């Protein structure tokens, strides 16, 4: 299997061009290639495919083999891949995901994609569609007990579920202890991604993320979008913010007139490679 290792702010995935390659067991393949000791090392696996409804299709798998609906950092890298590797010459592309079709603007530097702006669509605030168990219309600054501690969360879906928690000490958070309890809390029917956020000022947010199926990652694009929306809903930030993640910064703008969230950030190719999966994927 030929592959390309790419990352968006350190949120790294193994990308496979399925217009040329065939991945028989993507769940098991994702688990193997993601392993940083015995595989390639990544936060998951992303397959680039043909689409009947868009320019391309993105299938995304987490490091534990579970399939995700959407990945903000991952989709920027898909856009870079299809342009840089000659699959398209368009600088505006549409990509089909399990969270719907996303539209991306590509910005070039020296003939290759440097940054990508993604129309992430409308944030979903209705609990049943996030999904999270609740009889309320929205969950904004909602108390939740997690492993004996009361937190306040704001729940948003950007095609995948997010619980955003604002706090003062993000750097000192023992996220590896708290994150799994949030992810698997009984109110989240499909588990959840959890963002722990400090408000630096009304235009700047600092965020760490525990990603469903991948543990802590250096960045999460959908999480940054959910965080920006949650900050606005809680009266903590303006509509346009910089979200500072461990891997770098993302620019997020919630156009409330159109009710669409736009994310702008870099996409980076690390290396190309080839791996023999047969001896690793036997039962």
The major beta sheet can be summarized as: 18 strands, mixed
Continuous helix count: 4
Tell me the CATH architecture of the largest domain: Roll
* First and last CA, distance: 19 Å
Mean pLDDT: 96
**Structural class, from secondary structure content?**
alpha+beta
The CATH topology name of the largest domain reads Diaminopimelate Epimerase, Chain A, domain 1
Task: Note the run of SSEs as H and E.
Answer: EEHEEEHEEEEEEHEEEHEEEE
> Briefly, what CATH class of the largest domain?
Alpha Beta
Helical percentage: 10-25%
Overall form: globular
Residues in β-strands, percent: 35-45%
Give me the count of strands: 18
Residue stretches low in confidence (pLDDT < 50, at least 5 long) are none
CATH superfamily assignment of the largest domain?
Diaminopimelate Epimerase, Chain A, domain 1
Site (Could be important to modulate the pK values of the two catalytic cysteine residues): 162, 211
Pathway: Amino-acid biosynthesis; L-lysine biosynthesis via DAP pathway; DL-2,6-diaminopimelate from LL-2,6-diaminopimelate: step 1/1
Protein name: Diaminopimelate epimerase
Subcellular location: Cytoplasm
Keywords:
Diaminopimelate Epimerase, Chain A, domain 1; 18 strands; 43% strand; globular; EC 5.1.1.7; lysine biosynthesis; DAP_epimerase_AS; cytoplasm
Write a structural description.
The protein is of the alpha+beta class and about 280 residues long. The two termini are about 20 Å apart. The mean pLDDT is about 95. The protein has an 18-stranded mixed beta sheet that branches. The radius of gyration is 18 Å and the shape is globular. About 15% of the residues lie in helices and about 45% in strands. It holds the Pfam family DAP_epimerase. It is found in: Cytoplasm. Its EC number is 5.1.1.7. It catalyses: (2S,6S)-2,6-diaminopimelate = meso-2,6-diaminopimelate.
């Amino acid at each position: 299997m030929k592959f390309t290792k790419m990352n968006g702010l350190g949120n790294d995935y193994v990308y496979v061009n399925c217009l040329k390659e065939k991945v028989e067991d993507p769940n098991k393949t994702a688990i193997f290639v993601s392993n940083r000791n015995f595989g390639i090392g990544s936060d998951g696996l992303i397959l680039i495919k043909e689409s009947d409804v868009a320019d391309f299709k993105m299938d995304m798998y987490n490091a534990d083999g579970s399939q995700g609906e959407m990945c903000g950092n991952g989709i920027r890298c898909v856009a870079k891949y299809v342009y840089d590797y000659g699959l398209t010459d368009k600088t505006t592309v549409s990509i089909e995901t399990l969270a719907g079709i996303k539209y991306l603007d590509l910005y070039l530097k020296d003939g290759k994609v440097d940054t990508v702006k993604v129309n992430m669509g409308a944030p979903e605030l209705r609990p049943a569609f996030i999904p999270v168990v609740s009889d309320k219309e929205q969950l904004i600054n909602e108390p939740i007990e997690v492993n004996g501690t009361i937190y306040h969360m704001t729940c948003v879906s950007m095609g995948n579920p997010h619980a955003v928690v604002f706090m003062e000490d993000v750097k000192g958070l023992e996220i590896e202890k708290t994150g799994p309890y949030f992810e698997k809390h009984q109110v989240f029917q499909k588990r959840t991604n959890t963002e722990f956020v400090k408000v630096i000022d009304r235009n700047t947010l600092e965020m760490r993320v525990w990603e469903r199926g991948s543990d802590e990652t250096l960045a999460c694009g959908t999480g940054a979008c959910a965080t920006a929306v949650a900050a606005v809903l809680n009266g903590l930030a303006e509509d346009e913010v910089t979200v500072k993640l461990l891997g770098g910064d993302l620019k997020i703008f919630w156009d409330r007139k159109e009710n669409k969230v736009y994310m702008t950030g870099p996409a980076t190719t690390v290396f190309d490679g080839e791996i023999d999966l047969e001896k690793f994927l036997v039962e």
